[in-house]
Amino acid sequence: MDIVLLGLNHRTAPVALRECLAISKDETSVALKAFQELPSVREVMLFSTCNRVEVLMVVQDKMNSVDAVKSFLSELKQLPVSEFEKSLYIHEGNDAVRHVFRVAASLDSMVVGEPQILGQIKEAYHMATTTKTSGVLLNKLLHRTFFVAKQVRTETGIGDNAVSISYAAVELGRKIFGTFEEKKVLLIGAGEMAELAVEHLIRNRAGDILVANRTFETGVDLAMKFKGQAIRFDEIEDALKQVDIIISSTGSPDYVVTRNHVKGIARRRHNRPLFFIDIAVPRDIDPEINRLSNSYVYDIDDLQGIVDENVEDRNKEAIKGERIVDEAVISFRHWYESLEVIPTIVELRKKVEEIAKGELEKTLHAVKHLSSDDIKAINRMTEAMVNKILHDPTMLLKNSGQLQDKSVYLDVTRKLFKLDE
Amino acid sequence: MEPIFLVVIAFYLLSTIGYFIYLFLQKDYLQKTGFYLLAAGFLCHTVELGYRLVQSGHFPVSNLHETLSLAAWAIAGVFLLFQDRYRLKILGIYAAPLITIVMVISARLPNVPSETQTILKSVWLVVHVVAIFIGEAALALACGAGLLYLLQENAIKSKHRGFFFKRLPSLELLDNTGYACIVAGFAMMTFGLITGLIYAKSIWGRFWSWDPKEVWSGITWLLYAALLHQRLTVGWRGRRAAIMAIIGFAVILFTFLGVNFLLTGHHGEFTRM
Asked: Measured between CB atoms, does B232 come within 8 Å of chain A?
């Protein structure tokens, strides 16, 4: 019996193929049930995100199960096995365990340290428990996985720094303003990154949002989206007196805000800091503004530079994460090996014998008048009792190979007698 | 030197080490350790000063050794108060070494008793000295906040973030803390100067005698008054305020030490070696 994982991810398969093989929620429960029907599969769970499709199984016979899963996927997705076979990776034993830990800890993600993956795995596991396709091994493995993922997140800086342009801008703003409460934001133009940055700021409790657009109607629509207020393009200069953060993303060939605009209003603003985020190419904000006191200008290259640095930092932190994963794999292996029959029987016997021996000594110590023959007789009786008590459980465990799932019996035995302490 | 003096220095030194490790590793418990070590040092220091007061019967500012020790004590006390209020954890990286250095210098100076002991028994004088020291301690912290502000602003402006960017808090917090230190420091200094004037009147019969220390204290006071005025009217903040806080503290240092060594006057006694 072994743990086997097969799957494909962003490194092994192009997006076109991942799209074809992505499995929806409804399909997942169908697939889980189908896999469970397979005679060689004991436990199974399945997770599918935009970057990966993975099947994690506890199997009796590896080759059979893997082939069965492949052909099931091929049938479900109407795609010949040969189309995706080359992109598949198959891990077993320690490698499978390590892979699950790495994926959950976001060490295997496209953007290392992205936090969503853990939630997705939790959901997939929940699915497996509700369809009752997970058992002792997967339960233990997944609980270890969640623990490891959390440990990697708290003990390394893997998720510390922003790795998207809009988030990097927000993080920078935090170093200027501390908090965004009551800070007013002006969005000039429109665009995905700029709007994302505004959304981040709103989530961080920024104050009023102003939107300026060359086409006033577009501005009004955007302002509605952010529950803000639309202003006309020629009102920008006036708005600079009251806003704190300016996000600009227009198609304008010239600077929308120039040094003179800002210089003129510094006194009116009581020199409160101004933070310009310029996402436009060509640039909207005169870079000379950065030289004025209490004004800070970051353009898209500056922000990209931060993102690149942060990605590098995350990769460095990932090395620490790998070490944590390695340790966890070893400790899981120990638990897994303890599920072997013989060591469990030996430990069980040792435990019961120790109890008998301890109690015997206590009694003989208290009762002094016994002859040596009496003592021998009591010893023999104790031994016989130990043997008789252990006989049935030992036989059951030894023959557990024929049972549906010996790991259940081993696990219960270990828990009943507290053999893991 | 009393052994307790060494204990005080040891606490301050350990606190400094704690803050330095915090700067590199950024673990919160290190910062807390530094803080509590400093607090322990401050307590011992208070006991030590009290002991001195009881033993000699006069306020311990009769020579440079005692004056510096009192200055370090004031900085430690004001820092602990501000830390509790403003949560500017990283300021310890400035305050703890400053306190330690002042204490070490003090420890290396001879403790010679002075002849001016009689005047050191006046309540006005004690209030004058304590208020001035607390005020100047707050202004020393303002200088620290200003230095940190300049480091962080440079990191943001130059777009080369480097070592300090991650470790220092937001510009706004640094600026606000510096401002609060200056307001508190200025208020205490004003109070200290007024009590000083009253004391001067009571002992020499006139408020102001153009003693160099008085003149420089006046200059210092005007400097901070100007800084506060500019902030309140046209919003002098950020870089300019930070630079002014640093210059202001440099002038204080000159008033505190330089005047006594380079010029002569009736304040000379307190920094005699």
From this structure: no
Confidence label for B113 from pLDDT (cuts 50, 70 and 90): low
- B contacts of A272 (beta carbons < 8 Å): 235, 237
Would you list the DSSP string of A186-230? EEEE--HHHHHHHHHHHHTTB--EEEE-SSHHHHHHHHHHTT-EE
* Distance (Å, whole) CA A99 – CA A122: 16
> Which tokens is A375 given?
């003592």
What is the rounded distance in angstroms from the CA atom of residue B213 to the CA atom of residue B211? 5
3-state secondary structure of B147: helix
Say whether domain A180-300 belongs to CATH 3.40.50.720: yes
Nearest to A273 among B161, B169, B238 (CB): B238
Active site residues of A: 50
Contacts of A176 in chain B (CB under 8 A): 156, 170-172
pLDDT tens figures, B160-192: 878 888 888 999 999 999 999 999 999 999 999
CB contact under 8 A, A174 and B157: no
Homologous superfamily (CATH) of A2-155 is: Glutamyl-tRNA reductase, N-terminal domain (3.30.460.30)
Q: Does B170 touch chain A (CB under 8 A)?
A: yes
Inter-chain contacts counted by CB atoms under 8 A, chains A and B: 52
Give B152-189 as a DSSP string: HHHHHHHS--HHHHHHS--HHHHHHHHHHHHHHHHHHH
Angle between helices B171-204 and B212-234 (to 10 degrees): 140
Shortest distance, CA A176 to any CA of chain B (angstroms): 5
User: Ramachandran region of residue A238, left (φ > 0), alpha (ψ -120 to 50) or beta?
Assistant: alpha
Q: What beta strand segments (E) does A118-272 contain?
A: 185-189, 209-212, 229-231, 245-249
pLDDT attached to residue B273: 45
Domain boundaries, chain A: 2-155, 180-300, 339-416
Between β-strands A52-59 and A41-48, what pairing exists: parallel, antiparallel or unpaired? antiparallel
pTM of the model: 0.75
Interface test with B, best of A170, A179, A271 (most B CBs within 10 A): A271
Measured in Å, how far apart are chain A's first and last C-alpha atoms?
25
The pLDDT tens digits for B245-255 are: 999 999 998 88
User: Quick check: B161 and A290 CB within 8 A?
Assistant: no
Chain A interface with B: residues with Cβ < 8 Å: 172, 174-179, 267, 269-273, 290, 293-294, 296, 298, 302, 305-306, 309
- What is the distance of C-alpha A212 from the center of its chain? 39
